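Entry for the shared binder. Reason: the reviewer on the internal report wants the predicted structure included alongside the sequence.
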Amino acid sequence: MQFHGLLKQFPKEVKLLITAFVITLNIGFFTGINFVKITSTFDSNGIETNYLGNEKDENAEIMQFKKSEREIITLVHNHVLSMSLIFLILGGILSLTSINRKVKSILMLEPFVSIILTFGGIYILWTGVLWFKYIIMISGIAMVLSIVLSSYFILKEIFFTKN
């Protein structure tokens, strides 16, 4: 079965459903990114402090404690499961666009690598491998780029590509 370019042939109501999903997904995703900004200040030390605490820092404005194993496992579990489903759906929709197949393949698979590296990396950081905070940052940025580009290509296909 040929999926490439099929999205532009969908009926208007299905395109509107997909548009509503993509927009709502982005609102939810970027609300989460805002939470990351608040909790980690978008820097490597903020990431480390968020999970490992700062109780030894006498100059800390806000005291933070190391997350418990239960908190880390819950965070990793919830994010890996939910984001896997999010990117499965988004990738499925993206597979129906007519963009370059190599670009499409990268955008469909990269988020899963980033999910593993980001949330597996949070667990590894929590165990004490401090340099992994840089892997978390890089994979997190890649995940954001993937959702932005995938959403852009899907919405572009819906609104700016003729049958």
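Summary line for the report: The helical segments are 12-40, 44-52, 69-94, 101-126, 132-160.
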